[in-house]
Request: fold
Amino acid sequence: MSKDTIPYKIYLEENEMPKAWYNLRADMINKPAPLIHPGTHQPMTLEDLSPVFCEELCKQELNNTDPFIEIPQEIRDFYKMYRPSPLVRAYCLEEKLGTPAKIYYKFEGNNTSGSHKLNSAIAQAYYAKQQGLKGVTTETGAGQWGTALSMACSYFDLDCKVYMVKVSYEQKPFRREVMRTYGASVTPSPSETTQIGKKILEEHPGTTGSLGCAISEAVEVATSTPGYRYVLGSVLNQVLLHQSIIGLETKAALDKYGIVPDMIIGCAGGGSNLGGLIAPFMGEKIKGNADYRIIAVEPASCPSFTRGRYAYDFADTGMVCPLAKMYTLGSGFIPAPNHAGGLRYHGMSPVLSQLYDDGLMEAIAVPQTEVFAAAEEFARVEGILPAPESSHAIKVALDEAKKCIETGEEKTIVFGLTGTGYFDMVAYEKYHDGIMDDYVPTDEELEKYFETLPPIE
Ligand SMILES: *Cc1c(COP(=O)(O)O)cnc(C)c1O
Reply:
C-alpha cells in the first residue's frame, strides 16, 4: 500500500481501544516458573504475597489461566488521557535510508512521565486505592518508574514513597523534582530510614546505592507500615499483563489496514514493554496461527538474555523478595555505568525468560555508542528525541532495514519506541564529546557473579 492508503500515524478510535488486558501466560504451553519463597523454596501463595503486594495484583501475578482480564473503567478513563498511542509509519526514515522495508514504531513517550511505565503505574495505584490502602512504596533507578508512579498516585490521592538510588538522586535532580511536583516523597537510597539501609551504610559507608538495595528498603517500609504495599515497575507477570495494552493497540492498528509484520523488536530491561508489545503476536505464534520474528535488544554491558544463566535468583540485594526463575547475571551483578538506566537490571521477566528458553524469540546485545548513533540517526529524521533504552530497539530496527537494502526484501518491521530522552542529555553530551565508552563484562567477571546464584533446581 502507498502513502495515500496508510496514514503516517495510525490512531485507533476511542471505542476501538482494548477493554481487557491479554494474559499471554494462559496460552503458553510451558508456563513461566513460579516465584518461590526465599525461606522455604515453595511456590509463593496468595497468602505469602499479600503482605507485600496489593491483593488484586497478587491474584493477577498468580493467574496463568484467564486469557483476558477486564480493564476497570476508572483505568480506561485514565488511559484515554494519553492513549491510544500512535503507531507511526516511519516514511521519512525509510526514504532517508533508501530501504524497501516498511518501518513502524509504537510511540509510548506521549505522556508527562515520558515512557510506557504509566500503563502499569495507573493500574497498580488503582488496585491499591480499591483495597483502601493509604499508600505505596517503590524504588526507582533512573527515575522513569518513580515519575510514572507519582503521577498515578496523585490521580488516586495515594501517598507515594520512592526510594531513589542515591547516585541518580544526586545526578538527576530534575526527575526528582517532577516526582515531588506530583506529591511523592523521594528518599535517596541507601538511607537511615530503614534497618537494611542502616546496615548497608554501616558496611559500605559512602556507597552511592543500587537498584537491588533500593528495592530492599522499599519492601521493608511497605511491610512494616500499616496501610502500605510495595509496587514494582517491571519484571513481574502483572506488569507484563498491564503492558499488553501496547501490543493489543499495535495489533488492532495493523489489522485495521491489513498489515502483517515480519518482525517485532523491543528493548529489554526487566522485560515489561517488550512483553506487552509482543503479547498478542506471541499468542498467535504459540497457537500456530502466525509466525513472526521477535527480537529482544539489550545492552552489551548488561546482557541477561545473551550471556546470563536461566536459574532461580534473588530479585534484590537484600534477598528479602521472592526468588524468580529467569535469565540472570546474578543479583550481585553491578553493570558498568552505562546510560540506559532502565536496562540495568540483572534479571529478566520470567515470562520472557521461558519464551526465550523455548526458542520462541531471539535476543541481541548491542554496544552503547552504536545505540546512541542510532538514536541520533532516528532523531534527525523522525524528530522524536528517543530515550537511551528505546534506542536499543531503534538500533536493531535500523540494522534490519539496512539489510533489506541489500536483499531488496520489503520486510515489515515494527518496533517499540518506549519513551523520550529529555532527562538523558548528559548521556547524549558524553556521546557528542566522544567520551562514552563501550564497556562489556568479561567471561571471568560474569563467572564470579554466577557463583552467587542460589543452589536451587
Ligand atoms: C524502564 C524503561 C525501559 C525498560 O523497562 P522494561 O521493563 O524492560 O520495559 C525501556 N524504555 C524506557 C523508556 C523505560 O523507562
